[in-house]
Task: inverse folding
């Protein structure tokens, strides 16, 4: 892995790292994110801070990657400010597909 200042560039979809400061800080620390099929949820996004999940989102029908990244970044900020996990997985009546 390269060291030194991070080089920022725009991806084909127009997303830059600086668009998601909370994701960037989490990943630069001990955390990571996962997006995609995370059983039992078929379309999910999860942020993990190195100790626990801080955000567990369900991708909405036809949601774009840009949109889920924006929602995940906001959920990380909410979780850090409140000390509570943002959890869309374990809601009453939630379907797992």
Result:
């Amino acid at each position: 892995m390269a060291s030194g200042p991070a080089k920022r560039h725009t991806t084909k979809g127009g997303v830059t790292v600086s668009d998601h400061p909370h994701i960037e800080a989490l990943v630069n620390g001990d955390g990571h994110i996962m997006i995609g099929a995370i059983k039992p949820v078929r379309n999910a996004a999860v942020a993990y801070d190195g100790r626990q999940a801080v955000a567990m989102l369900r991708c909405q029908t036809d949601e774009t990657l840009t949109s889920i990244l924006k929602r995940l970044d906001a959920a990380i900020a909410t979780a850090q400010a409140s000390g509570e996990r943002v959890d869309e997985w374990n809601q009453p009546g939630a379907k797992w597909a």
